[in-house]
C-alpha cells in the first residue's frame, strides 16, 4: 500500500491524523499541522504576539516537569481560574511578548510531538487565521523543488472506556477547511497547476473555497463548534474563523513554535 498512499507523485499532499502523518511526512520538506478548534489557532494568536508555544502531549503527567525544565508556564483549561493561559485563542490575544507557554492538546499538540519524533525538519502550525502567511512560506519551499504535506488533526471518538480523546480518529470539518485554506493560499502564492496537487489536497481546497463566504457559520455548525457553543465559547469560534488576519508563520524551532515573518 505504501507506494499508493504516500501521494509521492504530487508536490502538495494532504491527510488526516497520525497515520497519514507517518505515511506522508517522510516525503515532505514542509509539514503543516492544522487543528482549527483550537490548538493551531491558539498557536497562531500567541506567536503573533511574540510568545513561544511548546507543544506537549495531552494528559501526559510529565507536562509540569517539562514546563519547569524549560522555564515555561503550563497551559491549563479555560474554565480553570487558576490557569494563566489555555487553548483559548480569545484569551491568548492578551499574552505578553516573550512568554514561553507549554500547551498540551489531544490532537494538534500531540501530532506536533509525533512529527518531531518522525524527524520532520520544518514544521508549521496552520489555521484559517494564518493561511495566507503559511501559504506564502510553503510556496517558497515549493519554488525550490520541495514538497508540502498538510495534516488535518481531526478529533477522536470516545474509546471503549468512554475517554473522549483516545478512540478512533473522527474527521473534523473545521480542520478540513483550515487545511484547504492553507492549500488554496499556497496554490495562489506559488501559481501551482492543478496536477501538482494530490486528489486529496484538491478535495480539501475545494471544501474550503465552498465554505469561504461564511466560515464562522460553518465552524459554529460543526460538531466541534457546537461543543464550544455549549460551553459558551463562541468567541473562540469567531477567533478561529477569522481568515488571513495573522501575518506571522509559527515554525517549530528548538521545540517551540516561534514566529517567523
Automatic annotation (TrEMBL):
UniProt-listed SUPFAM superfamilies: ComB-like
Q: Which cofactor does it need?
A: Mg(2+)
Q: Which reactions fall under this protein's catalytic activity?
A: (2R)-O-phospho-3-sulfolactate + H2O = (2R)-3-sulfolactate + phosphate
State one molecular function term (GO).
Answer: 2-phosphosulfolactate phosphatase activity
Q: What is its EC number?
A: 3.1.3.71
What keywords are assigned to this protein?
A: Hydrolase, Lipoprotein, Magnesium
Under the heading InterPro entries, the entry gives: ComB-like, ComB-like_sf
Q: According to its UniProt record, which protein family does this protein belong to? A: Belongs to the ComB family.
PANTHER family in the record? 2-PHOSPHOSULFOLACTATE PHOSPHATASE-RELATED (PTHR37311)
Name by which UniProt lists this protein: Probable 2-phosphosulfolactate phosphatase
Naturally occurring in which organism (per UniProt): Pseudofrankia inefficax (strain DSM 45817 / CECT 9037 / DDB 130130 / EuI1c) (Frankia inefficax)
Q: What is the lineage of its organism?
A: Bacteria, Bacillati, Actinomycetota, Actinomycetes, Frankiales
Amino acid at each position: 500500500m505504501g507506494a499508493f498512499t504516500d501521494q509521492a507523485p504530487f508536490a502538495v499532499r494532504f491527510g488526516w491524523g497520525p497515520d497519514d502523518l507517518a505515511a506522508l511526512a517522510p516525503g515532505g520538506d514542509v509539514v503543516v499541522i492544522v487543528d482549527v478548534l483550537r490548538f493551531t489557532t491558539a498557536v497562531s494568536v500567541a506567536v503573533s504576539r511574540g510568545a513561544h508555544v511548546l507543544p506537549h502531549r495531552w494528559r501526559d503527567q510529565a507536562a509540569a516537569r517539562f514546563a519547569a525544565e524549560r522555564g515555561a508556564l503550563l497551559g491549563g483549561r479555560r474554565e480553570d481560574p487558576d490557569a494563566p493561559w489555555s487553548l483559548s485563542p480569545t484569551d491568548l490575544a492578551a499574552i505578553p511578548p516573550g512568554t514561553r507557554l507549554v500547551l498540551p492538546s489531544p490532537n494538534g499538540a500531540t501530532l506536533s510531538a509525533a512529527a518531531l519524533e518522525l524527524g520532520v525538519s520544518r514544521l508549521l502550525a496552520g489555521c484559517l487565521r494564518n493561511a495566507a502567511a503559511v501559504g506564502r512560506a510553503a510556496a517558497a519551499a515549493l519554488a525550490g523543488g520541495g514538497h508540502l504535506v498538510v495534516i488535518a488533526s481531526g478529533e477522536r471518538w470516545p474509546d471503549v472506556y468512554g475517554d473522549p480523546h483516545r478512540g478512533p480518529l473522527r474527521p473534523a470539518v473545521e480542520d478540513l477547511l483550515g487545511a484547504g485554506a492553507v492549500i488554496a493560499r499556497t496554490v495562489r502564492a506559488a501559481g501551482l497547476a492543478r496536477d501538482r496537487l494530490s486528489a486529496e489536497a484538491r478535495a480539501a481546497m475545494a471544501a474550503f473555497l465552498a465554505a469561504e463566504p461564511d466560515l464562522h457559520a460553518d465552524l459554529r455548525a460543526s460538531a466541534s463548534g457546537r461543543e464550544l457553543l455549549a460551553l459558551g465559547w463562541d468567541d473562540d469560534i469567531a477567533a478561529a474563523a477569522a481568515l488571513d488576519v495573522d501575518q506571522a508563520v509559527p515554525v517549530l524551532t528548538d521545540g517551540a513554535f516561534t514566529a517567523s515573518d
